[in-house]
Every structure is written in structure tokens, then in C-alpha cells.
Amino acid sequence: MKTIFVTGGVVSSLGKGLAAASLGTLLESRGLRVTMQKLDPYLNVDPGTMSPYQHGEVYVLDDGAETDLDLGHYERFTRCVLGRRNNLTSGQVYETVLARERRGDYLGKTVQVIPHVTDEIKSRIHELARKGDADVAIIEIGGTTGDIEGLPFLESIRQYLLEEGEENAMLIHVTLVPFIKAAGELKTKPTQQSVAKLREIGLQPKVVIARSEYALDDDVREKLSLFCNVPKRAVIEARDVDHTIYELPLMLQKEGLDTVVCEALRLETPPARMEDWAKFVERVVRPRKRVSIAVVGKYIELQDAYKSIYESLTHAGAAHDCGIDLVLVDAEDLEAQGGPEKHLRGVAGILVPGGFGDRGIEGKIAAARYARENRTPYLGICLGMQVAVVEFARNVCGHAKADSTEFDPETQYPVIYLMEDQKDVTNKGATMRLGSYPCVLRKNTLAHQLYGAEEINERHRHRYEFNMKYREALEKQGMVVSGTSPDGVLAELVELSNHPWFVACQFHPEFQSRPRATHPLFRGFVAASLSHVC
Ligand code: GLN
Q: What is the pTM of this model?
């Protein structure tokens, strides 16, 4: 297995994860089998307990790992299905090393960052090769060079490059080339300094990807090549994309990134075949139709909090040659009298995503009610399903006080509740129902028709469940449980039988949608929204 490390310099939010993912797209399109890994220097064991304000969305994998949202980019841009070992944090590294120390495995020795921590990091990288069948691993290091926490990772990379040799492993550095208005110039100094920082610790990148608002002219490329000590053709421009992140692989291909990488690692392959990808991008950029979809959430102002949902809508839109006009609605704004009407009138579809805690809950319930009463297509995801059930129990079944015990522990109608096995859980980390579980679909339901399958697998991240005690009462009024766990104990999907398109799921379909494999629920939702007359 060949290994490509990707580090970032100058500032964060450079799109390093997207650059790594795009390289993955290009290498796969050359016929190589690719795997991806993210090394996160922070001390949390995983991002599962971090607020979206800290970290954006928590992305969940098949095996239940709660990971960085970059893993979402990796899965969407490649064909990889990733697992726990594809995201490593300092927290996990120290947890392992310290457990080993307590067991006495290092008896007699002083436990140190070098070699014990660095050995553990390297062994997690080697594990990718041992346990998989990839030709190439692309490994992104979180944070920015110069961060104290990142040093053990960079040291591990230095050792790894030395041990594996030039032809088997390489480093790519992503930096910023800012435009200084007063001088009217692009500036290379920050990049020079961040590469100098890498060289101080013995790392020489083979490729520099320069993120910039403007095209790099020949002079700038010349300078970057000279000061960063890389050939001029290994200076790769990554201009801000015009329309969509999915343009990035095409841009990097034009810049020759995959060619330089394959030469460096002696990978002999035909050129990348990107025709399908280009077609998808074309549909995203110049759709023939448009549709407006409201997303009603509580982290609406944060671009990253519902990342996978926005991406899934983009994929589904492209499948229908249709652009999505997102209407982002803060759930709390719907709580006032007339709020739903004011904010949701005119939208063609309403999506309520997942969430935790009671802020904005009544607003989300109002959104579900608005969709039901106005026959507007509704897609409820996780909490979005739970609020739809609460709303139906309250306003259709007449249990005005129905609730989830998450919001009212004393409610007399706990239509959403905590299952017995969750009641004793005190630790918050990694204790939810997490990861992929099978779901059996009921025949002659919308869900069954959309999936075209009897059994599906979807990823979960929640603690509370639909209370089956109320199933019969709800079904009698027209809210049908259309998917359950194979043993029939857990409700996975509900839908309204007398509504054009009202589907809500306990799982997170957004973690499995890809540009080249649109998710059936999102595809169906966008199609229904397109034919909805507002
Ligand atoms: N808070 C709800 C639960 O824990 C929903 C979680 C979610 O939407 N991801 O069940």
C-alpha cells in the first residue's frame, strides 16, 4: 500500500479534507483502490460529545464510530465505506498507550511521546494496510502545522516516510496564498513559512496545494517552487470553486495533481476517467429546474452542522436535474403565533433534521404540523421523525400532552421514550444506538416503493425510540409504521397514508447518500417537492 499524507498550513478551514477527498476521487478514477484516514490531534476520544458549534456535524459510520465530518467528504467523493480505524484522535492514542502502561506492558521503561506515542500512531496507519486491500491510503492530519498537539503526528509521519521510502509514501501540504488588496498581489510568504516549519521537523512536502482566490501566475508558481523546494509542476493551484465543492476534483485534475502523485509513487495507471463526475457537476451547476426546500433546525446559522443533509439534497437534486434553493429556518422562529405560515409558506418541501435537547422543539413540531396540514412533502430525520410522531399524537389522536420523555420526562403519553437498556447509561460518550442496523420494510408502503427492497441497512445515532405501545392508535389514524427492526421491536420509519409524501425515519439516511448513488429517501423527497404545487 502506498501512503499519501496531507497536512495543512497557515490557517484552518482551507479545504484540506476536500482536497484529500478529491485526490481520492482522481486516484479511484484511475482504477486504484483507495482508502482514507483522518488523524485528529485533539484530545477528545471521538467528536461524539462535541457541540456542532465546536465541530460541525458528527458523521457516523457503519460500525457506529462517531467521526469527523471530513469522513463524510471521503465517503461521498470515493467509493470507500469507512470504519472506526479510519479516524484516529490523540485521545484514542493516549487511551491505548496509558492502558498498556497500566497493564505493565512497558514495565521498567519511561513511557514517552517518542517512541511510544509515535509507534502507536504508526501502527494505526499500518493497520489500514494490514486489514484492507487498498492500493493507496490518503491520510489527512487535522489542524495546522505549528499546533503543539499536532507534533507527535508530524513526527510519526517523518519516521514513516523514512521507513517506507520515497516511492511508497509522500507528503502533500495544503496552504493559503492570500491576495493583499493594498498591494494588489498574491503573497507567497505565509506558504514559505509554513513549509519552512515542516522542514524544521524534517518533513519535505513533494506537492504544495495552494488555496487561493485568484489564479497563480507564473511568477507566483516559480516563487513557491523555489522557496518550498518542490518542482514547479508540483505547485498545484486550488482556486475557490465557483459553484460546488464537487468541481474540485476536476480542477485538481487540470492542475495535474494526480499525475504528479502517481509519478512520485511510481503508480502506473491510465489517466483518470472523470466523465461521469463531470456530468454530475454539470447537473449541479446548471440544473434545468429549481425547487425550494426548507430545513428547520436549531444550528441553521452554522454551515457545517447539517453538512451531510445539504449534500444529500444536492445529490438528489442533480438526479432530477434540479437545483435546490435551501430555505434555512431557525426552529425557534416557528414557535410564535403564525410563525410556520410566515416562514414556510411557498416552500415545496420541509425537512426536519436530527437534534438533541429541547431548544426549538415546539418550532419543529409546528413545522411537522404545517407539512401535514398543508400536504407539503415532509422528510423527518431522527429527531425530525420523533417530532412528527409527537405532533400526530397531539393534534390527530388528541393527546394534547403527548411528548418525548427527552423533553417531558413525566408525560402521560410518552410516544417517544427511552428503552430499558438506555436507562442506566451514565456515560455520554459512544453510548447511543450507533451505526448500521437492518430495517425491514412493510409491503405496499411508500418506503417500500422508494427503496425497492424488503430489507435495508441504515446508520443510527440516537437514544430515544418510538413507543410501540402507541403503534395501533397512531396507525388507526393514518400514521403507519412502514419499517421496523427485523424483530419488530423498534420502529424505523413512519409515513402518513393520507398525505402525498410524508416520510420520517429514525435513522440518518444522509450518511449514505453519494453523488453517484443518490439516497432513495432524498430522491423521493425532492421528486415529491418538485411536483408539489405551493
Ligand atoms: N435526541 C433524539 C434521541 O436521542 C434524536 C437524536 C437525533 O436526532 N440524532 O433519540
A: 0.91
